[in-house]
UniProtKB/TrEMBL annotation:
<dbReference type="GO" id="GO:0030170">
    <property type="term" value="F:pyridoxal phosphate binding"/>
</dbReference>
<dbReference type="GO" id="GO:0016740">
    <property type="term" value="F:transferase activity"/>
</dbReference>
<dbReference type="InterPro" id="IPR006233">
    <property type="entry name" value="Cys_b_lyase_bac"/>
</dbReference>
<dbReference type="InterPro" id="IPR000277">
    <property type="entry name" value="Cys/Met-Metab_PyrdxlP-dep_enz"/>
</dbReference>
<keyword id="KW-0808">Transferase</keyword>
<dbReference type="GO" id="GO:0019346">
    <property type="term" value="P:transsulfuration"/>
</dbReference>
<keyword id="KW-0456">Lyase</keyword>
<protein>
    <submittedName>
        <fullName>PLP-dependent transferase</fullName>
    </submittedName>
</protein>
<comment type="similarity">
    <text>Belongs to the trans-sulfuration enzymes family.</text>
</comment>
<feature type="modified residue" description="N6-(pyridoxal phosphate)lysine">
    <location>
        <position position="204"/>
    </location>
</feature>
<dbReference type="Pfam" id="PF01053">
    <property type="entry name" value="Cys_Met_Meta_PP"/>
</dbReference>
<dbReference type="GO" id="GO:0047804">
    <property type="term" value="F:cysteine-S-conjugate beta-lyase activity"/>
</dbReference>
<dbReference type="GO" id="GO:0019450">
    <property type="term" value="P:L-cysteine catabolic process to pyruvate"/>
</dbReference>
<dbReference type="InterPro" id="IPR015424">
    <property type="entry name" value="PyrdxlP-dep_Trfase"/>
</dbReference>
<dbReference type="InterPro" id="IPR015422">
    <property type="entry name" value="PyrdxlP-dep_Trfase_small"/>
</dbReference>
<dbReference type="InterPro" id="IPR015421">
    <property type="entry name" value="PyrdxlP-dep_Trfase_major"/>
</dbReference>
<keyword id="KW-0663">Pyridoxal phosphate</keyword>
Amino acid sequence: MTHINSKLVHLGRNSARQSLAVNPPLVRASTTVFPTLAAFKSSYQGVSFETPRYGRSGTSTAFELQTAMASICNTQSCIATSCGLSACAAVLSAYAEPGSHLLIQKEVYGPTRAVAENELRRIKADIEYFDSADELPHLIKPQTSLIFLEVPTSLSMKMLDIRAVTTIAQKHKIPVACDSTWGTPYFFDAHDLGINISIHAATKYINGHSDILLGLITGTYEDLAKTRHWCERFGSHAAPDACWMTLRGLRTLSVRMERHQENALHVASYLQVQPQIKNVLFPALASDPGHQLWQQQFSGAAGPFSIELQPCSESAYEKFFDSLNLFALGTSWGGFESLVMPAIAHHLRSKQTLADEGRMVRLHIGLEDKDELCADLHQALALLG
Ligand SMILES: *Cc1c(COP(=O)(O)O)cnc(C)c1O
């Protein structure tokens, strides 16, 4: 079995066999009990990360998800954590110590940046931000311990030449981590591009139903060793219920992503030609500056993108949000439903690089009928004048 569509359906179901069910059992446990002292001892000496030991490092439900996800991402290993942010924080923290130097892509997810700015700086790690692969040769130091990417960046939707980054990093023997949440393993093969540590907020598309939080980190055993130790020491692992829900979401990832892509392209193309809209930030559009890199590095486009409105009054901006019916107003994305939120670049991003006279809006295009989504936006845009 090599095709991702087959893997999504079949993997992570081994423990279902005993119960003759399609799906694996949800195993909730704090304590693992052993039949003999020998079994107890060997569980602590074992090299396998998929052996029950104590509930904190997972039960069979987490192991099913982790082994499935590792195979789906064409790598050896996966760690499930309590949420996407804890996964990002674990990776960053595992590589930060006093004097170490971490290079982080500008405009990463705001809470990820807050970890770097507050927690990593607190332990006297040296943090620097970069925008493109060209800057890296000038920024890399002997103490550089990690390069952290997010492609595309949330809200500003910027692409990056990932292959160029990983090529430079390999030359200097620096591991590269990437927040791969937007592309999901369905549209984005992070490890094939040379990324050592790939992070997914499974809260978004992998679970796909806006009802749990979960993070997944994938890579080889060697590349995940530091992060795994950090997660074990700090108790960052995911709860069995969230792992079970994520396994259920995984089954339909391929069909959902295809529909999200179809709808997002349709809505983005509609918006692009509306007079109230100054710019659509979506690398899947041919007009986007990141389009070529997106084509090279992704096999498809997910549902979130941003729009920049023509200058308008604050009250018109408010009316636009309040009159939408199919787009609920809320943060996050990746569920089946369409969402809208104000994107205030200078509040959320590392550095304001977007023109501010046009107000920004972040949309997530859900699985509704695409023409009805456009019609809903149409009536709301009309209120902008
Ligand atoms: C949502 C998100 C996260 C955080 O995930 P949570 O599960 O909400 O903590 C991290 N990175 C990106 C790109 C996200 O969109």
